[in-house]
Specification:
The chain is an alpha+beta fold. It has one domain (about 1-80). Helices cover about 30% and strands about 20% of the residues. The protein has helices at about 1-5, 15-30, 35-40; strands at about 45-50, 50-60, 65-70. Strands 1-2-3 form a three-stranded antiparallel beta sheet, covered by helices on one side. The two termini are about 20 Å apart.
């Protein structure tokens, strides 16, 4: 899977669909979260920083209505990096 993501090239040349798919696959592989958590990641609450991407997600818990998901950049391979410019 990672080899395929590398073949897509840098984020600047990808369509919105491919960037979205790349982000979802990388998040699923690295976060170890349930599919439900991935589906609750809201693009309207995203914060893109130099070395990570932060999402606020809704939860079903009354005690904790929101949770944060941080996708940390992988600087060793810019083709597999969340924090690369123009990811969003």
């Amino acid at each position: 899977m990672l080899d395929y993501l590398r073949t897509l090239g840098p984020n600047e040349g990808l369509s919105l669909k491919n960037i979205t798919m790349k982000l979802v696959v990388l998040a699923a592989l690295t976060l170890g979260q349930r599919c439900q958590t991935l589906s609750l990641m809201n693009i309207n609450s995203v914060q893109v920083r130099t070395n990570y991407v932060n999402f606020i997600t809704k939860t079903s818990s009354v005690c904790k209505p929101h949770a944060e998901v941080n996708l940390i950049a992988y600087p060793h391979d810019h083709l597999l990096c969340y924090g690369e410019k123009k990811l969003f």
